[in-house]
Write a structure and sequence with these properties.
There is one protein chain. The chain is α/β, with parallel strands linked by helices. Helix content is 37%, strand content 16%. A hairpin with a 4-residue loop joins strand 2 and strand 3. It is globular, with a radius of gyration of 20 Å. 55% of the residues are buried. The structure holds magnesium ion. Magnesium ion binds next to loops.
Length: 385
């Protein structure tokens, strides 16, 4: 059980419609994939859903792009782990961290491929290597990007009818518009659906965030995600409103979560497979959140099915991830019907669809990261740098 090759390739899959949030400048769906093989012919796949305009507060962490990820993997990470034994993620991360600091998205793509490959070689699901399956189904939050109010209301009514129980609304651009969209969506979906808002640090000040979220509270919010930039400013907002605050841009790794807990900056943290640098690190983040008494969900960057398999594995294995997760319902084109809940793309790179039952994805028990990757689809959507 030895790693024999690591290669990278770039794909672009077509989106169902434009999906935008505050600060985003590049289209989603153009991501770098990692393909690893072992000495027995097994294959493992990873993905870096890297966006150059995504980052942590005050430049503390910063965006990567597919080209940067390709360079970091090709020049540093792949040579550092060449020939290593499988099923030793502690060693994988030690080697990657020794050869280059930072670049968590590049390291995450390597980590997913290594876990996928190791688990396939062992004939077990990746969740077994993460401590086991804690939950059999992962509830899905449908994310409404920055849309016009009418279009957003129509989409929310449809996904609610499909069984989705939590809707996240991107805000953070104009307080008046933001309050109106929450009011209209609440009127359309009724009281049984949980609504959350995500400002992506978009409000100008804690004061603006506090005033705006207080007005939204009349329409019942489950949580308000990253209303402003900075742990101290999040704490200011948290103290002033009744709605729980979720930290996303402020919560990249386990150390950030300790700071958030110490400063009572948020009640909820958004755990990604990518921000801390892979599944191995994400399990640490989730463990710290749990120990600190913070709630968590799994959230991401609208991965293709390749990377979304890692989201589902994390959500299934991490006890802390008790809240509905902002993950796609990855579905190849020939399985697409009229459903749009959790669907952001017109096709996908896995060989079978993720199954949505009562608004939740059924956790795969297949070996590796679950549903097999469709190499013909990858060839179809492969693009040059
Ligand atoms: Mg967010």
């Amino acid at each position: 059980m030895k790693l024999v090759s690591t290669e990278t390739l770039l794909v672009q899959i077509p989106t169902r419609r434009e999906h935008k949030w505050t600060g985003l400048t590049e289209p989603i769906g153009r991501y770098l994939l990692v393909r690893m093989t072992d000495d027995e012919g097994h294959v493992g796949w990873g993905e870096a859903p890297a966006l150059k305009d995504w980052g942590g507060e005050y430049g503390r962490y910063f965006g990567e792009s597919p080209s940067i990820v390709r360079l970091v993997i090709g020049q540093y990470l792949a040579p550092a782990v060449a020939d290593m034994e499988l099923a030793n993620p502690a060693e994988l991360h030690a080697r990657m961290d020794r050869v280059i600091k930072g670049y968590p998205y590049a390291k995450a793509a390597m980590d997913f491929a290594y876990y996928d490959l190791s688990a396939r070689a062992l004939g077990v699901p990746v969740t077994t290597l993460l401590g086991g399956i804690f939950r059999e189904r992962v509830a899905v939050t449908h994310s409404i990007g920055l849309l016009g109010i009418e279009e957003a209301v129509r989409e929310c009514a449809k996904v609610a009818a499909e069984g989705i129980r939590t809707i996240k609304i991107k805000v953070g651009q104009d307080p008046q518009r933001d309050v109106e969209i929450v009011r209209e969506i609440r009127a359309a979906v009724g009281n049984a659906i949980d609504l959350c808002v995500d400002a992506n640090e978009g409000y100008a000040s804690p004061g603006e965030a506090i005033t705006t979220i207080r007005r939204m509270e009349a329409y019942r919010l489950k949580y308000a995600e990253q209303p402003v930039m900075g742990i101290e400013r999040l704490a200011e907002v948290s103290r002033a409103i009744d709605t729980p605050v979720m930290a996303d841009e402020s919560a990249w790794n386990a150390h950030d979560v300790i700071q958030i807990a110490e400063r009572r900056a948020a009640e909820i943290v958004s755990v990604y497979t990518t921000k801390p640098g892979g599944l191995y690190r994400a399990m640490e983040v989730a463990a710290v959140a749990r120990a600190a008494g913070l709630l968590a969900n799994v959230n991401g960057s609208v991965e293709t099915g390749v990377g979304n398999r890692a989201n589902i594995a994390l959500a299934a294995a991490a006890p802390a991830a008790s809240l509905s997760c902002v993950v796609p319902v990855s579905t190849p084109a020939d399985h697409l019907g009229s459903q749009i809940g959790g669907i952001y793309y017109r096709d996908d790179l896995i060989s079978a669809p993720m199954r949505l039952i009562d608004g939740a994805i059924e956790v795969s028990r297949e070996p590796g990261l679950g549903i097999a990757v469709d190499e013909a689809k990858i060839a179809q959507y492969r693009i040059a740098d």
